[in-house]
């Protein structure tokens, strides 16, 4: 969809506050409100807000330059496996941030289509008499979503913020106070990135310090916002699947004929079939949204998980062989940053698969044996489709779930064994 195609939607807001009632998206805070308004501006006009343009340009200038200098330094430093691996770790993390901005800024219109998942009227199959029960199902899912996103973002922000305090752990005062050695560690920068020029003299040192602090701040904002959007969209899909499963599981013959001891007449059969068709249409709509979500995030997850695995391997490897306490702490932080995001996305994908597969069991749990043959055939088709769960994928081949997380752990262990043997 082209960016200007959104302008045909008129001036209708992207989302009203009532659409996300209960979701702790921080819409009342100024920072997130500005971010949301820039997206809504694009939605209604088809044009990027000047704040969005400024942010994209600024991130590319800082982030891309940071990555370029970091990778260029590898060709001028002394070739030692521990130093080289540590040198490429920081620009890889910077490349993750730049790629997040690329994937969202250049496909904003396609991403905004997915925000329809957050609307309260996304589904139409809920009968009036079950709305209270469905609201309780939705409330529980919103509670889980808020907790999931809150802790995921807190850990993400914490690991990135701790990077800014690394120079203090490597400082002369800290080392001498705790009797960890004498004299400062050189280099002593925020990210300890390598540079292909002499930087350890004033005023270049101060410029590098400020430059890396800006880069870390941008990484915190970008990573947190992008991660929150993905988690909210996935959990919205999970919530819709739970609602659909609840409606199907509680579908009884007595809902249509008014008497559980009476056989269904033609009118009751027609009503039950009509209700099932609504559920099937909503199931198709959810699956279509799931396919769009998986397709839109496939490239991002492929790149992000791959680089996060590399960062985790390098961090554990250098943490094992580091001699300074500050270095061990730094690499431990980077290990948490790299592998924790992998675990969050895998858990997120597993929740989506579980909810999608649960629809199959819940369709079978309805009183299909009391319904007419036409109802049974339609329910069978719905079960066949539910047998193919919605899932996030990386590389269009691998499902992003807990099974993949286990395979990643094995890959990390094998890679560490290989690197350790090279050092020895």
Topology:
Elements: H1 30-45, H2 50-73, H3 81-105, H4 108-113, H5 131-163, H6 166-169, H7 172-177, H8 204-249, H9 254-257, H10 266-321, H11 325-364, H12 373-386, E1 393-394, E2 398-399, H13 402-423
Antiparallel strand pairs: 1-2
Keywords: Cell membrane, Membrane, Olfaction, Receptor, Sensory transduction, Transducer, Transmembrane, Transmembrane helix
Organism: Adelphocoris lineolatus (Alfalfa plant bug)
Family: Belongs to the insect chemoreceptor superfamily. Heteromeric odorant receptor channel (TC 1.A.69) family.
Q: What can you see in these coordinates?
A:
The protein is built from 13 helices and 2 strands, in the order H-H-H-H-H-H-H-H-H-H-H-H-E-E-H. The protein is mainly α. Strands 1-2 form a two-stranded antiparallel ribbon. The model is unreliable at about 1-10 (pLDDT under 50).
Mean pLDDT equals 80
The amount of helix comes to 55-70%
By DSSP, the count of extended strands is 2
The termini sit apart by 54 Å
The helix count comes to 13
Structural class, by secondary structure, is mainly alpha
Spatial ordering of strands, largest sheet: 1-2
Largest sheet: 2 strands, antiparallel
Low-confidence stretches: 1-10
What overall form do the CA principal axes indicate? elongated
How would you describe the oligomerization state of the chains in this entry? single chain
The radius of gyration is: 26 Å
Main location: membrane
Subcellular location: Cell membrane
Organism: Adelphocoris lineolatus (Alfalfa plant bug)
Membrane topology: Multi-pass membrane protein
């Amino acid at each position: 969809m082209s960016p200007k195609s959104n302008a045909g939607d008129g001036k209708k807001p992207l989302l009203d506050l009532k659409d996300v009632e209960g979701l702790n998206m921080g819409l009342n805070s100024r920072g997130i409100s500005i971010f949301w308004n820039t997206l809504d501006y694009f939605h209604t006009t088809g044009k990027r807000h000047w704040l969005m343009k400024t942010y994209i340009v600024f991130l590319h200038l800082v982030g891309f330059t940071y990555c370029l200098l970091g990778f260029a330094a590898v060709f001028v430093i002394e070739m030692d496996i521990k130093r080289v691996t540590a040198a490429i770790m920081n620009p890889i993390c910077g490349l993750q941030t730049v790629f997040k901005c690329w994937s969202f800024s250049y496909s904003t219109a396609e991403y905004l289509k997915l925000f329809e998942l957050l609307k309260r009227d996304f589904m139409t199959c809920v009968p009036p008499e079950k709305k209270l029960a469905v609201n309780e199902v939705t409330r529980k899912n919103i509670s889980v979503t808020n907790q999931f996103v809150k802790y995921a973002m807190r850990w993400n922000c914490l690991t990135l913020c701790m990077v800014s305090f690394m120079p203090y752990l490597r400082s002369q005062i800290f080392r001498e106070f705790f009797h960890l050695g004498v004299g400062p560690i050189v280099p002593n920068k925020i990210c300890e990135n390598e540079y292909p020029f002499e930087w350890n003299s004033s005023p270049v040192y101060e410029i590098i310090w400020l430059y890396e602090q800006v880069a870390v701040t941008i990484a915190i904002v970008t990573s947190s916002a992008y991660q929150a959007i993905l988690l909210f969209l996935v959990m919205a899909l999970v919530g819709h699947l739970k609602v659909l499963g609840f409606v199907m599981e509680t579908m009884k013959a007595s809902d249509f004929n008014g008497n559980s001891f009476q056989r269904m007449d033609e009118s009751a059969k027609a009503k039950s079939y009509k209700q099932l068709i609504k559920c099937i249409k909503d199931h198709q709509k959810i699956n279509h949204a799931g396919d769009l979500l998986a397709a839109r995030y496939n490239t991002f997850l492929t790149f992000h998980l791959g680089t996060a695995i590399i960062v985790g391997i390098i961090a554990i490897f250098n943490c094992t062989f580091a001699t300074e306490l500050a270095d061990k702490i730094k690499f431990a932080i980077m290990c948490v940053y790299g592998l924790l995001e992998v675990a969050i996305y895998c858990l997120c994908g597993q929740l989506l698969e579980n909810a999608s597969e649960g629809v199959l069991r819940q369709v079978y749990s309805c009183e299909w044996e009391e319904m007419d043959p036409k109802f049974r055939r339609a329910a069978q088709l719905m079960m066949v489709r539910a047998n193919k769960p919605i899932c996030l994928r990386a590389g269009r081949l691998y499902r992003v779930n807990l099974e993949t997380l286990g395979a990643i752990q094995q890959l990390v262990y094998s890679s560490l064994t290989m690197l350790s043997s090279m050092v020895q």
